[in-house]
Structure formats: structure tokens, C-alpha cells
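Follow-up to my post from last week.
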Amino acid sequence: MATQLLRRRASQILSRANPNPSSPLSLARALSSDSAPIRATLFPGDGIGPEIAESVKQVFKGAEVPIEWEEHYVGDQIDPRTQSFLTWESLESVRRNGVGLKGPMATPIGKGHRSLNLTLRKELNLYANVRPCYSLSGYKTRYDDVNLITIRENTEGEYSGLEHQVVRGVVESLKIITRQASLRVAEYAFHYAKTHGRERVSAIHKANIMQKTDGLFLKCCREVAEKYPEITYKEVVIDNCCMMLVKNPALFDVLVMPNLYGDIISDLCAGLIGGLGLTPSCNIGEGGIALAEAVHGSAPDIAGKNLANPTALLLSAVTMLRHLNLHDKADRIQNAILNTIAEGKYRTADLGGSSTTTDFTRAICDHL
Amino acid sequence: MARRAIPLLKQLFTSPSSNLTPIRSVTYMPRPGDGAPRAVTLIQGDGIGPLVTGAVEQVMEAMHAPVYFERYEVHGDMNRVPQEVIDSIKKNKVCLKGGLATPMGGGVSSLNVQLRRELDLYASLVNCFNLPGLPTRHANVDIVVIRENTEGEYSGLEHEVVPGVVESLKVITKFCSERIAKYAFEYAYLNNRKKVTAVHKANIMKLADGLFLESCREVATKYPGIKYSEIIVDNCCMQLVSKPEQFDVMVTPNLYGNLVANTAAGIAGGTGVMPGGNVGADHAVFEQGASAGNVGNEKQLKQKRANPVALLLSSAMMLRHLQFPSFADRLETAVKRVILDGKYRTKDLGGTSTTQEVVDAVIATLD
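User reply:
Got it. Predicted complex:
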């Protein structure tokens, strides 16, 4: 009878919390979510990175989130195995743990090494960039009703880096779209929509001009859409999308896009809600890896002064929790953050207040 | 003279629509024979095209403007633009056009793009500005987006490498980048604009957008009185939605120009009111500035509620291009006064009027 009970409990957990059915990591996590802490890699980053990472650790401790952090720092020596300042051990740690949180990293200028973001993306095969954008009720911008997610294909498209000079004064740049990458990101987009209760997915394209490339992207999206009949699927041309976003952002729910359009639209949406300092972001890789990150810069001018705004990194950490299906903890922390900002008593300098990072963090912990 | 000037000045400053009273300009001295009617090719287009071009025709008649239209039928599902249309435009040098619908992914290349390539209309211009009286989220917007119109991502050079892998070529040449940069700076110079901003993504596409930027920088050195700056396209979109007043003239390659123009049009009042056109060395085609790729929906067509303001303002630009400045001023003043009054506005501006009502209002307001 005990085995029957155990089996039933296991199937309950699996059916309730299954982000990626094919991933062995999620299976292990689903069974261990009630008992052992989950290990997650943390890259504090440069500049204000360490301060805001500290914020995240405090808030998570206050909310009793079962996560054990494994901190890794970016070295100042190039690791020959990765051709960059990130060591092999750091990357292995992310692969092993399956989740990570990354603070802002300033890429040192120089030649002979890959940029840090590029290294992470290529080595961990991070194929989708997810940015939930919703208006923060305490921070007033011109737009109050933004509630959308942008999902951007992160590996190919216009950013393949394949350019060459044909003759003097004529340059060609290749935009590559493959069926495999488009299917992958479309699958993730619809799966995300389903697990987060979203009703509409819109594919953004310019297939009237780039008929074969964006046409292939759209074909893949349509194929995946057929498997999810309960989700409304629409296709929107990118210029129409830009115009509608600035006139009425409430029209959009989940947006899935190739690389370049995704870059522009996700930054546009970040601008609608108040800028990169408040926008969470999460990169999804093969095998269910999730690397949440803060997309703002490392702000070296205010580093170490306890003035930084940890909101972006905190909200990204919340996205990471949702990926791990710890929805109740994620909701608690998110509500605490939103209530603190809405109250207006404790706000950092960039939101128009005068609190320090530590005060802001303590206020959030109090709201938990 | 001071005695006569004071009451005039008082009238100018106290009347509520003083900024819309046309100042009679006597400095435009035409050449004898300039008043002869000019032929303009008219392409009605698809969707709401016939409705809005009809509006322009009515207003031109009411003003007795020295233009007459040669109408041609072109539809978006034709394979090519008919040769007679191209010949007519080459003869008249100026064309007014409604939108042409492009079938989605259907193997037919866009007729809009074809027309621009055929006539080498290499600069596309959209003027996005706040119309007085029209409430928008953003104030102080006055942006002109000048977009390279012939190459870049719209080269149409695509092929399937193997099944499931498709490549598209983006071509940037020094020749085209230089001439669009020259046009942008010349426009800024002739229209008393203070800043030109180049929009690019050269941190990722180093060679392609790098070449575009190089050309812009070279041309900038020849105009020391105009401030030149560069901005990455994703940051640009973010700044447009938060602080649009920092932008003046923007010069961009083809695809980014499309996005930036539509975003700027959206924040300044919508694509229904922004004028624009395409211009080349020999010809000019005027159309609705930023149409966001659509030609109106069925409901708009049936109820005849399309917004004619954009095409009316574009035709005012056309009149100035044909060197009839006083007619252009009258038309613009009338349209702006109708918008300011607020009684006759179409649905996209928050009103309930039909196209015909707006046109009648404009004709009634003409002086």
C-alpha cells in the first residue's frame, strides 16, 4: 500500500509540475521539490552585480525558498577551454544544476576572446529569450496596461554574424532561418503560454517582403499552433506590431519572433514599462536549462554605494522560480516587490526615491 | 508704421487660432507660366485607397489647384506594375498613390517595393508630429524618418540552402548609403533641422551597418552646423516610447526605417495622419507616410470611415514639391484646423465621422 501511495503521489507531482516532459532534470526536480534544496548557479557579475545578488539572496532567505546558491565569478584570465573569461567549471555548474541567475557583466574590451554573453549562449545552447513585461503598479509610465511576454529566438536569424565584403563598397550579411530552430522556439512559446495560462500567441514577421525566410518561421509556428487548439494564434507584420504596441499594448499577450525583431520589440516593450532597470529576462536552453539574467548594465559609477535598484534581478529570479514550478513562492516574492514599489515609501534613486539597496530589500522582506 | 503694426500684432496674439492664420506671403515670385496645370499620375490602390484618393481629388477641385490627375488601375495582386503606369510617372515626374496590398508569403513580390526600385526612389520620408488638438500619450514629437528605400534587407534575394534551411541576403552598398545620408543632411539643412541621428545595429552587424555608419559620418563632416549622433536600433525604440522629444531627423537603412517610422507614427497620433512620400533623383511618389503594411479592413471600407488626413497632408507636400506653396499652405491649414476643432474625426482618432464628412469639413474650412 505504501508503494501505491508513493506511486500515486509521484504521478500527482509529475502531472502538476512538468515544464519539459522530456527533461530528466525536471523529473528529478519534481520529485525533490518537497525535500532537498535545489542547487542554482549564481553569477553576481560586475559593478552593481554583487550588491543586487546579495539582495536576491536575502529575499529568497526571507521567503524560505529551497534554493542553494553556487557562486561563480568571472575570472580575469582567459580559459583556453572556453576561449573567454568564463571558466569551464562555471559552465559545467550551470549544465549540472539546470538553473542559473546572472548579474550584469561588463565585457572587457579586447580581442582574442568571445564576449561573455556569446559564450554563455553558444556553450549552453540558449535558444529562447523570454521577457515578461508588465506595468509595475507603483511606477507610473505613459502605459498602464502592459501585460505581455516576448519570446525571442536567440541563436540564428540576422545575428548569425556571417558577413563579408563582396567588392569594395558592397557588403552582404546573411540572415539564416532553419526549421529546427524555429520549431524549437515555437514549441517553447506555446508550451509557456499553456503553462502560464495565456490565451493568445502572436507570431511577428515580415513575410510579405522576406517570403522564404520569415515564411519558413511562420510555417513552423502554424504547425505548432495546430497542436494547441485552445490557444489563439495570430500572425502580425512587424511594422503593424510596432504601431499597435505603442498605441494599445493591451492587445498583445505572448509574442514569438525571430532574432532581430525580437531584439527590437523586447527593448521596445521594456521601454513601455519603464526601462531595462525594471525588466526581468530569462534564457532557455536545451534540456530545460534556464539562465535568468538582469539585462541592464553594470553601472560602474554607482557600484559599491548601496544605491542600486535590485528590481530587475529580483524579477528575473522570480522568472527562474516559475521555470522551476515553485509558483507559490514566486507569487509571494513578486507581490512583495510590486507592493513595495506601489507603496512608494521605499524606492531607489532611479525610481524617484531615496532609499538604499538594503532598505529596499528589507522593505520587500517585510512585505513577504 | 509702428502705429499700424500694434493693432495687427494685438490681433495676432489674441485670436485663439492665431497660430493657424495663414500669413500671406508675397515673397514667392513665380515664373510666367508656372500656373499652368500640372499632370499628376494617380494610383488609387487597394482597400481604402480609392476612398482616400477620392478625398484628395475632391479637395483639389474645391481649391481649383492647378493639378489634374491621370488615373491608373493598379492592384496588389498583379504580377508587375503595368508599363503604362511607369511611363506615365516618368512623364509627369510626380505621382499620388493609395496603398497596394501585398499578398502574404505568396510568391508575388510587393508592388510597392517594385515601384520604388523601378523609379529608383531611394529616399522614403515620413514626418511624424503631434497635431494640435489631437490627444496623444507623448507631446513634443516632431520626427522626420528618412529611410533608404532600395537595398538592405529588402533585396529579395532568398534561397533554400537545403530543405529546412533558408538564407536571406542583406546587401548594403556604399553608393546607396552615401546618397541617403546626403539626402538626409540636405533635407535637414533646407528645412532648418538641427540634428540628424543615424539608426543602426553595427555592434552585431559590424560590416553591413558599419558601412552605413561610415557613409553617414563622412557626409556629416560636410555639414558642421548640423549635430550628428548615432543610436542602436533597440535603444532607439526604447527611447522613442519614453523620450521622443530628443529626436529630430533620423536616417536609417531599409528595415529599421520601417520599424522606426511606424513606431514614431504610432506615438504621434497614428498612421492615419502622418504624411510622407518617396523621392528619387527624377521622380517623387507621395502616399500615406507610414501605413503599417495594411490597407484598411473590410469594416472601414464598407462604412467608408477611412482617415483621409494622411493622404491630404501628403498631397500638400506634393503641392509644395510642384512649387505651389500657397495652395499647400491653404490645404494644410484647413486640415489642421479641422483636427483642432475636433468635431469631424474618424474612428482611429477617437471620433465617429465618415471620410466624406471630414472632406466636407476641410472644404468648408478652406479660405
